[in-house]
Amino acid sequence: MSNTSFFDEQKEQSLIKARIVEKYFWAWAQVMIGTIKRLESKGREVDPRIAYIDLFAGPGRYKDGSKSTPIKVLETGISNPEMQNRLVTVFNDVDAENVSSLHEAINLIPRIDDFKYKPQVINHEVGENIVKTFNERKLVPTLFFVDPWGYKGLSLKLINSVVKNWGCDCIFFFNYNRINMGLSNVAVEEHMNALFGKIRANEVRQQLITLNPKERELTVVEALCEALKEMGGDYVLPFRFKHENGNRTSHHLIFVSKHVRGYEIMKEIMAKESSEQNQGVPSFEYNPATSKQPLLFEFYRPLDDLEEMLLDTFAGRTITMQDIYNQHHVGRRYISKNYKDALKNLEAKSKIVAEPPANKRRKNKGELTFADSVKVTFPPKQ
Q: Where is the GMT-like wHTH domain (predicted)?
């Protein structure tokens, strides 16, 4: 696949993708540095570094001058004294012209020499050698970003070679249409098997034969998420990008972590970048052609569904708001605010009992609050 025109101009989709990565990098780095500093203060011997690795880095800037993800990450790092002293960055691209251009773009960043560890820009093809290198090393906490042109080099082994280590998370971007077509293309069977695992890839190929386009997409993404979980990526979160006309999916951004804290942070970030919210519940999708259809939209009310789920799941129990959220949100697109809204609705309908009750809780900007510590008593199942 030619990438000649890809970096001519930054499209809105690329902007949102870069923003999600940049926001998560900042939040992840703060958590990792805070943890390392606490260990250091207790006299523990710990590597002080954190890392950011991008294996398909591109030229650094689009031809229209817009900054791509590597430059934004470095600018974020240089703005923070702790990151200046701890952050190791590695950027790779198989295209020698991109490597040269990225070198130039990095050198133009103000105060780039303030980094203790100079950014590394390398020129390698992503394959078994890189996987072997990562497998043989115990990595420092690393945020790993993989954004290939198609699927070559993207594999479960590659992702696992990084996330197997403590503090290591992965974000990867993949072209759904190319993978959808690739699953039925014998010529790229090896690449598809590397991405899904051979047994699962064969199962998906069989399933896709009778499915319509929407069902195909759900099946492909579900299979990939399940494969990631099986290899140890306990927390997997997909975000969908639609084409500019809004009719078809173009890409998916998938986040993989072994820790629920990273999952929670990314969920909040993706929620804010979603182009639609229904009853305050995010779509986890960016659709540039979103057009509001309030009548049709109301046929699906996800907050109402959440209320029913909570009544069913926690029937007969007394439990805090925080524990409700912790025990229920993984694998669902609801964020903390959605749980609080659902519980407030249930309380107003006298379907639950909250302690302290509504008349003893404070208001924030005129709106009733529902703190994490509020205890909720659910009625037993009828």
A: 285-358
User: What does each C-alpha distance from 5 to 13, 56, 138 come to in angstroms?
Assistant: 15, 16, 38
* CA–CA gap between residue 348 and residue 342 (Å, rounded): 10
- CATH tag, 301-377: 1.10.10
Strands 142-146 and 249-257: unpaired
Just give the CATH number of 12-286.
3.40.50.150
- Over the stretch 125-156, which tens digit does the pLDDT of each residue have? 888 899 999 999 999 999 999 988 667 778 89
Count Cβ atoms below 10 Å from residue 312 Cβ, excluding itself: 10
**304: Cβ–Cβ under 8 A, 6 or more apart, which residues?**
279
Q: Is the pTM of this model over 0.85?
A: yes
Who has greater pLDDT, 354 or 14? 354
For the chain, percent of residues with pLDDT exceeding 70:
93
Tokens 């591109």 -> residue: 58
- Residue reference for tokens 């969908």: 240
Q: CA 91, CA 58: separation in Å to the nearest integer?
A: 9
Q: What's the average model confidence in pLDDT over 328-334?
A: 93
* All structural domains of the chain with their residue ranges: 12-286, 301-377
- Return the closest-CA partner of residue 273 out of 10, 7, 21, 6: 21
Q: Of how many residues is the chain composed?
A: 382
Q: Are strands 87-92 and 50-54 parallel, antiparallel or unpaired?
A: parallel
Flag whether pLDDT at 343 surpasses 70. yes
Q: Which helix (H) or strand (E) holds 285?
A: strand 285-286
